[in-house]
Design goal:
Elements (H helix, E strand, L loop, with lengths): L27 H13 L6 H15 L4 E6 L10 H22 L3 E6 L12 E6 L2 E6 L13 H4 L4 H23 L22 H23 L2 H7 L4 E6 L3 H6 L1 E2 L8 E2 L4 E4 L9 H6 L6 E5 L5 H11 L8 E5 L6 H15 L4 E4 L6 E3 L5 E3 L1 H18 L5 E5 L34 H16 L2
Parallel strand pairs: 1-2, 1-14, 2-5, 5-8, 8-9, 9-10, 10-11, 11-14
Antiparallel strand pairs: 3-4, 6-7, 12-13
Helix pairs in contact: 1-5, 3-5, 3-13, 6-7, 10-11, 11-12, 12-13
Bound molecules: phosphoenolpyruvate (PEP) and manganese (II) ion.
């Protein structure tokens, strides 16, 4: 509880700073109405959960735990459906069990869900054709801000969507909490998993043998726990999920930021772990100003343009008291850059003694466009960035404590590669993401096996 010392901070102090990716609402009165409504509604998460997550991140910083963060690039209001939510929980849970087994340490699961509704864009406007003529409209900034259809009315930022976003986040969370309370025992078991990627010809015989061995020992372990009796299984396999999203729309975030009884400081109660994106992490900008005052653990994306001095300046502003569990640096350099860019940053932060959790997002630096103009990512590049990161950490003497994926539990065709050998020409079979391409169920599970195998040999 250090932030009470921040006498120059308030949930609105960001408004005096330059705001990258600022949403331009036309109707100021409607903004006030939406913000007031959000301020009056109950929080989506509690300070107890937030502090528990901070404690788990502190453990991961010490190498005692691993953090798995994943979910959609952009959640949509339309995807607030039971089958979509269940599929996302399932894949995250199954990946986490593979990682627990490989790494031999507890894994904390953090979904990019229940509020991942706001998206930064490289350009504030987009050109397109409407009724035969070319027009320029605001870009789609996610369902929290405007709607995806290329239509002037749909693209107009609508403040009421913040309230709708809050409601859908609440419905999503309500269902997640109910599933967790009810326990989803069936998916604990590899017997019930879809491991068909293991039988693809694209997988080498050595890898297949390694994965089959891991699957069998994992299943044995779970059977053993079951034999101990129901209560013990419940305790040992208690499933917990935390939520996260990019804290891009500061009006939304600050409207749910409040003090809570018996604690000092301010909590942003839209999510457990908000993060600052690569495009909004200017040290003197509005986002860093808002984030420096909240008690939540916070993520910061670190891209290939970052240098050690810039990262240290961010840490000095966001975590001046060097609180453990507070900062997750989500590094997203790209497979081509990580070899030259990561090491000086790791060394600089390690030398400063700042406590951070190093996570690797191998998605956002590895975007490519196919010859048909489709945005995709290759599983090979994703894996290459992960592997290089693990090696560089080992060289510097730091450790990779988490991973951050864009994925879905569904059978989409958005990323190429993987054992099933999805190619560029397969992408139109089921490309459903309104934003960045996600790993599908099989690709996600395969990556968990790859990572578990790779990190086990550390
Ligand atoms: C994202 O996580 O979807 C995203 C936009 O990432 P970044 O800020 O790293 O580009
Ligand atoms: Mn994305």
């Amino acid at each position: 509880m250090t932030q009470t010392a921040l006498s120059d901070w308030s949930p609105a102090s960001w408004k005096g700073k330059l705001e990258a990716q600022q949403v331009r609402y036309e109707d100021r009165e409607a903004v006030q109405i939406a913000a007031a409504k959000l301020s009056s509604l109950p929080p989506l998460v509690t300070s107890y959960e937030i502090e528990r997550l901070k404690g788990e991140i502190a453990q991961a910083q010490r190498g005692e735990r691993f953090i798995l963060q994943g979910g959609d690039c952009a959640e949509t209001l339309a995807d607030c459906r039971p089958e979509v939510i269940t599929a996302k929980l399932k894949i995250l849970l199954q990946m986490s069990l593979v990682l627990v087994h490989g790494l031999k340490k507890p894994v904390t699961r953090i979904g990019r869900f229940a509020g991942q509704y706001a998206k930064p864009r490289s350009s504030p406007t987009e050109k397109g054709t409407l009724a035969g003529s070319e027009v320029e409209l605001p870009s789609y900034f996610g369902d929290l801000v405007n709607r995806a259809e290329f239509d002037p009315e749909a693209r107009r930022p609508d403040p009421h969507l913040m309230v709708r976003g809050y409601q859908h986040a609440a419905m999503t969370l309500n269902f997640i909490r109910a599933l967790i309370d009810g326990g989803f025992a069936d998916i604990h078991h590899p017997d019930h998993w879809d491991l068909s990627f293991m039988s693809h010809a694209g997988l080498s015989p050595e890898r297949r043998a390694q994965y089959e061995h891991m699957r069998d020992t994992l299943a044995d372990g779970l059977r053993f726990m079951e034999a101990l009796g129901e209560k013990n299984v419940e305790e040992l396999t208690r499933v917990e999920f935390f939520t996260s999203h990019e804290g891009l729309n500061l009006l939304y975030e600050s409207s749910q930021t409040r003090r809570v009884p018996r604690r000092t400081g301010w909590y942003c109660l839209t999510t457990h772990l908000p993060w600052i994106g690569e495009r909004t992490r200017q040290v003197d900008g509005a986002h860093v100003e808002f984030f420096r005052g909240i008690e939540n653990p916070i993520g910061v994306k670190i891209g290939p343009k970052a240098d050690p001095e810039g990262v240290l300046a961010l840490l000095g502003t966001l975590n001046p008291e060097r609180e453990p569990g507070k900062i997750v640096l989500i590094v997203r350099m790209g497979a081509e850059n990580v070899g030259s860019r990561l090491e000086p940053i790791l060394a600089g932060v390690a030398a400063s003694g700042e406590p951070v959790l190093w996570s690797c997002d191998p998605m956002h630096g590895n975007g490519i466009t196919t010859r048909h103009g489709v945005k995709t990512r290759s599983v090979d590049a994703i894996l290459a960035e992960l592997e290089q990161s693990i090696d560089i950490h080992a060289r510097v003497g730091t450790h990779l404590g988490g991973v951050h994926f864009e994925l879905t539990g569904e059978d989409v065709t958005e990323c190429i590669g993987g054992a099933a050998g999805l190619g560029e020409d397969d992408l139109d079979q089921n490309y459903a993401s309104p934003c960045d391409p996600r790993l599908n169920y099989q690709q996600s599970l395969e990556l968990a096996f790859l990572l578990a195998g790779r990190m086990r040999s550390e």
